[in-house]
Amino acid sequence: MSSRSTALIIGAGLGGIATAARLARQGYQVTVLEQNARPGGRCDQLVRDGHRFDIGPTLFLMPEVFAETYAALGARMEEQLDLRRIDPTYRVRFDDGLTLSLTSDLNSLQAQLEAVEPGAFGGLLRYLDEGRVNYHTSLQRFVGRNFYNLAQYFSPANLPLLFKLKALVKHYHNIGRYFDDPHLKAAFTFQNMYLGLSPYDAPATYSLLQYTELAGGVWFPMGGLYRVIENLASIADSLGVRFEYNTPVKRIEVDGRRATGVILRDGSRRTADVIVANADLPYVYRQLLPDRAEADRLEKLKYTCSAIMFYWATDRAYPQLDTHNVFLSGDYRASFDRIFHDHTLPDQPSFYVHAPARVDPAAAPEGQDTLFVLVPVGHVDDQAAQDWDALAARSRSFVVRRLAELGVDDLDQHLKYEVIYTPREWTNLYNLAKGAAFGLSHNFWQVGYLRPHNRHAHYRNLYFVGSSTHPGAGLPMALLSARLTTERILKESGVVRPRRTSVTHLNWAES
After folding, report:
1. Which helix (H) or strand (E) holds 328?
2. Is the pLDDT of residue 505 over 50?
3. Please, what's the b/e burial string for 421-438 (b: 16 or more CB within 10 A of its CB; e: otherwise)?
4. What share of the chain is helix, strand, coil (3-state, %, to 5)?
5. Do 381 and 343 contact (CB within 8 A), yes or no?
6. Distance of alpha carbon 121 from alpha carbon 111, whole angstroms
7. CA nearest neighbour of 302 among 452, 188, 404
8. For the whole prediction, is pTM greater than 0.70?
9. Average pLDDT over residues 232-261
């Protein structure tokens, strides 16, 4: 660039941090404006009395995507993060007493599956091979690239791939090609909840999730997932990015076909050549832009589910719990219908428990425990009767009773404190529209070019990064979103794009 261009990033979520660092690496003068007191967005952290909780994500998946980001910033992931592979990835417990330990130890996995359904291990191998194809094809042809028009997305080269990826086939219907037993169908489809989706609505393409877990592994960065935020923010800072915390943006100023700057809540004004919004996209259109028609359109789209969260600090440890624990309850189909159609809590909710001290002793004082509990629930719906305090109380009672069956029967006696998040907190603390924990949904009509784009259609220097824009939700997708948005900014500003490291071929352990 002939002179240093400037960029303002609204929001210091993972996508905002990575975009800021990438732009700074290309010579931009970058400022990040974050409304909260620290970076991370919903990938936040709570530390109190020696207990450390990750507020949001707890699974480190697709390490090659993280490695590509570090490489693009001139660093090596394995020198920045102390990663530990979790195996078994998690223990899945059904309410009829069946337990499965999903592991990359194929001999162990074979014995478990064959005991449930003879021949099921062969089905798993076929299923994982389908996931392998879906994963690499999706990254190379759909998720890992920008689309600038509909013809690119539905090109003659891509159309056959959409059918190959089973983008129009529902995931739960497709799993029936590999397993008959309902336990196994559930054990290898509930991962759709990583994206806030029901397996009855999600495309069969998402068999790639199970492949990433068993082939690429589920990892844990020592220090928790928030360590990734701290580390990338530190790298961004070293590249010259300026972070301003406790600095909420009131609106984006526009003039003609350009965004000229932002007005902060205190009334001050900031200007830049490029503006990138990392806040939740529906919130940006509804609150920060004079674009009510687009805000109304986004309001009508499908959203992911929300979650009721319990963060429990206990004065004793519970060895009955592994690092990752999934409890599947009641009627599988009915549970998802209650969440996604009725927008409420299932009668018998499934839930997830994370005990980070199993892998990282620093997560809790010695002899004590730090427990993270996630109960999926419907998003905020103004047309439904939603008493979040009552729903939180009911979900808590159910979780405590279910854990008692496992021998964890004295939680209340040993509870030092608890923090509870409902969809209200997701909305109020992180500006998530409808309290939807994963942003907009990922059905066929809301992915790829059909998903909200990463540049505004009218304001040509206003870009977006994060879960509700292309390519979607989750930490790896946030990093891909940052890469794609940065590439688009550089392309449209006339800057030569740097050579890209292939995500699907980067061996991060040897990079």
Report:
1. strand 324-328
2. no
3. bbbebbbeebbbbbbbbb
4. 40, 20, 40
5. yes
6. 8
7. 452
8. yes
9. 97
